[in-house]
## 1
Amino acid sequence: MSKEHRLGDKRSTTEKGPEPSLNDRGCSRKVSELRGALYRKAKKEPKFRFYALYDRIYRRDVLEAAWNRVASNGGGAGVDGVRISDIKSQANGVTTLLDELHLELKEKRYKPKAVRRVMIPKASGGERPLGIPTVRDRVAQMAATLILEPIFEADFMDTSYGFRPGRNAHQALRAARGHIMSGRREVLDADLKGFFDTIPHEKLMKVLEMRITDRSVLSLILKWLRTPIKEHDDQGDRQLRKPEEGTPQGGVISPLLSNAYLHWLDKLFMEPSGPGGWANGRIVRYADDFQVFAYRLTRQIKAWITDFVERRMGLSNNVEKTQLSQVIPGGDALDLLGYRTEWVRSNGPNGKPWLATKPVPRSMQRFRDRVRSFTGRNRGAVQIDRLCAGQNRYLVGWVGYFGEFHRGR
């Protein structure tokens, strides 16, 4: 048996534990070892294409780890109306679900159900679509993610921060601040128009095939991409639509697929032939939201980005939201991930400018509105201990995110 086929058994995993960059929450020791082995193999051989992965996805311990994550993440019911709590409340409900899913995947009888689409409000105004697969399909997608994530994580660059284990928004903000402090103060704030809904399936599959040759795995992913979407039209009637492009926001595997696709933007940007080479530029990406920092030549970089995104990736730039700015003393501010970074002057007649990072005004306004809502007149019947507990939970969460860059910390 070849070394590649032995990935995951004791001979190939006991010499070293899982990589610290992987989040193995909810995984057994054997699943963690398998993920670590896949990561090390992919890291050691960047051009290796994995051809024996499907049987790992339907492994019983992998499905159990997938259930643990899905159950802890919560989420609503899919088109079948089944919630996580419904499965837990049934006698042997979890065991039955995992046994059936194991057999369906093993015997290649698995077919995903339609995705329930709902519209949720955006923090910046308007609405965005959210696709909710059934709990059963979320478990299957999570099992695939547990196996595929280590392989692609080995390739991903330090320039991307969104929806990755061990990475977060604060790290992206610190990277942006670091680039500005280094003198790269011309900033291109880019935005992709309807990214998750417009990823070309054919191009995405070609990207995945650069690392995965297991046809059963690729076929499984294609099933999820082509799963019909159930939504309401303007008259409130339900319609079933089969997508020809995109990967639904809300799908468990969607963040990994989107990062795998946009990884090539990060990689080619930093090549000597890209803006990272000829302009000494830097890129900070959080999912489909990215910023470019440079000493100069940002207009040329913008042209490169536009050509790459539209011609090579088949996506569209949101012209209205893509803008050039200069983050210099007395210049523009950079709004990123709910924070505003700008140069301000210290108090006093000879105060020197310093780079401040604080919540954007709309975040502050939402905070004030939410705090007022806890003590509004319509809350008079709520017990004081419950009211205080709810408000304290909100305050702790808000400070945990927006207190990160307080000058005194």
Note: Residues 135-153 form the longest helix (19 residues).
## 2
Amino acid sequence: MANSKNYYEILGIDKKADKDEVKKAFRKLAQKYHPDKGGSEDKFKEITEAYSVLSDDKKRREYDSYGQTFPGGAAPGAGGFGGNMGGFDFSNFQGFQQGMGGIEFDISDLFSGMAGDIFGGGGGRVKRGRDISMDVEISFKESILGVQRSVLITKVSQCEVCEGSGAKPKTEMETCKTCNGAGRIHETRDSILGAFTSVRTCPNCEGSGKVPKEKCTNCGGRGVVRKEEEIKLTIPAGMDNGEMIRMPGHGEAVKGGRAGDLYIKVHVKPHAVFHKEGANLIMNLPIKLTDALLGTTVSVTTIDDKVLDVKVPPMQQTEETLRVRGKGVKFSEGGSGDLLIRVTASLPRKLSSKAKKAIEDLKSEGL
């Protein structure tokens, strides 16, 4: 049976409202009706149920079409407060405690990023170090053939002495006295809406619940140190100027979590002879007018410094393209592009009297 509730009316929005409008309406009503502020539990449940449906593209399409949603999220209205209402699971609410006796949440969630912070379940997230980036300049030849590079970068890295634990080697860990081993601390603070209890990661143990009895002398118990580190880069064949390479886990380290990523922006210096179009290499080859008319053989040095003898047949146009297969960009999965030689006939700047007579003879023959 279709749901009789009109979620758009509950949030006070138009049916054409976008996601930002849905979120703003929910924030406003959540602040007004939250039970900790003396609001109605039923009303708060109702607006949360409406938001859980209208903020989800799939559920919103089902609701607009059929007046209800279907599994894999529970149908609207299913479950009690603190259960699964219309696919919104309060167990993921950051710092949420089931039961109306002591609702706890971070008030900042109502003012910023509710869709990500509240519904993402911040409590169990693995800490992640900061992503970093750097620029590397390579030659055109290296961009085509690929290259190995070693670079020095200064970043926050895991302490080699304590291996990231922050403890002096061969010493034990003990329960954090700040949070009593919970890894989180509860704080009550006043705001314009009154007193709220928030839950945050313990700053002393950084969420682990344990601290070293003796701190590592190398990192001072932080588990990480800022140092210069050598990174070996593999730049694959066929890189274009401005492309990025991502190296997971090579960013900055963080105690008790995983390292961020390193992003390398590649800058390719132009080549005097070649340029790239897709998987093909392009070069220009000007030849003398007589060679263009009679044909010739020219020696061409490829991007990998090999010399090829290329036969140029008599040209029928002032510009023609020759294709040398397999001499372009190498593919990592096998195969390669081609070398395209754009041959042009060069006109002489000055003619001798003998050359002029020869050309006049050609002209008399209708050439």
Note: The mean pLDDT is 80.
## 3
Amino acid sequence: MASAVLLTASEQLADAVSKEIDRQLETLPRHSIAAQAIQDYGMIYIGESMDELIKAANELAPEHLEIIAADAEAAADKIENAGAIFIGRYSSEPVGDYFAGTNHVLPTNSTARFSSALSVYDFIKRTSVIYYSEQAWQENEAKIARLARLEGLEGHARAIESRSWEKGN
């Protein structure tokens, strides 16, 4: 299910890359696997502007995103959804996978929209701690009870309202 997608504003580059893919597929040791991935999940998208290409990249939310452009760093700053971003022509995916020291366990299949690369935080137990002041509770108790009822959770609403005894209820 590996995919390879080229986002470009250049029809000339798109044509050259398409021909190069065909040429290289002929000699790859794992030709059948790569050819199937290109056929099923490969794509060349020609956009009209860098903003359009950045929007497309964010929608794709790729596992790996190589940005080779005149101002690659500025483009990278606009990427919100990618497992790993490789900036510039010398920062290819294999550099990150094998040598640069970055994490190689990345979100796949567009899950970079809501997930990050594996990190130490995935192995640390965290707990939420909530403290609400009396003033904040008094200002919001009716809203909280209403939200609970809108969700059909009457017990939650009553748990909020039962604390109204200090106000004389």
Note: The longest strand covers residues 5-8.
